[in-house]
Design a protein that fits this description.
Radius of gyration: 39 Å
Order of helices and strands: HHEEEEEEEEEEEEE
CATH topology of one domain: Jelly Rolls
Shape: rod-shaped
Structural class: alpha+beta
Oligomer: single chain
Number of helices: 2
Helix content: 25-40%
CATH class of one domain: Mainly Beta
Number of strands: 13
Distance between the termini: 26 Å
Length: 238
């Protein structure tokens, strides 16, 4: 595409230069015809030239020279403008390539889509299913399982938040496949409804799973205020 732009630019420049040269030649021929006609009307003998004609030719030469210089300057300016336009076209193509070629993956969800109360406890550690979808660009997050599955190799950002139960008994962890990454917990104290969050930047390969797991015999609280959330997006492909 870039080579095509450059080829067209060079062709256009040669065409414009040729046209300008034709204009200068026409001006010179026109001036010569005017002088010849003036000599015929003045009864000048063939082959003789008056001092007035010499001055006239001198003025014509100076005028044509000045026009030629202006044409050359215009050609240089046009060349500069075409070079700038060519560079701009190349940058636009590069930006389109970058934007169009980058996969877009992002999601954000809250735990409950309705109601309020504790979720858990369960007898085994269980992935939390974030059912209220704020966004799911690329459809990589599955609200039926609570699992995000990578469809692009790359570096990703994930964040989750947790609100503890009225009686502090909450432990949630972010996991990649079966690997524990980071956790938020609150199991001690007499106060309730404390909130915490955590985040990671990790590399994933196609097929890797990321999810938030509620530890066994633990619970979290949520309602229409959406305290518990799970979000992530692709930073860049690898």
């Amino acid at each position: 595409m870039t080579q095509s732009i450059e080829g067209n630019s060079q062709h256009n420049q040669r065409h414009k230069t040729a046209e300008m040269e034709k204009i200068v030649l026409v001006l010179m021929l026109g001036c010569c015809f005017c002088v010849a006609e003036n000599n015929d009307k003045g009864g000048q003998n063939s082959g003789s030239t008056s001092s007035g004609d010499i001055c006239f030719f001198t003025n014509i030469a100076q005028t044509v020279g000045a026009l030629g210089e202006k044409v050359a300057n215009m050609a240089d300016k046009i060349t500069l403008l075409e070079t700038r336009l060519q560079n701009t076209d190349r940058e636009v193509l590069e930006l389109r390539s970058l934007i169009g070629g980058t996969p877009r993956v992002a999601f954000s969800a809250a735990l409950r889509d309705s109601g309020s109360g504790n979720i858990g406890p369960f007898t085994t550690s269980t992935p939390l299913k974030y059912k209220r979808i704020f966004s799911n660009y690329g459809d990589c997050y599955n609200p039926s399982t609570g699992v995000f599955t990578a469809t692009v190799n790359g570096m990703y950002f994930f964040r989750f938040s947790m609100l503890n139960s009225p009686t502090p008994n909450s432990v949630v962890s972010l996991k990649k496949n079966d690997q524990l990454l980071t956790s938020v917990w609150d199991t001690i104290g007499t106060d309730s409804h404390d909130i915490g969050s955590n985040a990671v930047v990790i590399s994933l390969k196609v097929g890797d799973n990321v999810y938030v797991e509620l530890q066994e015999n633990r619970e979290v609280y949520d309602d229409w205020m959406n305290y518990n959330t799970f979000s992530g997006f692709l930073l860049f492909p690898m």
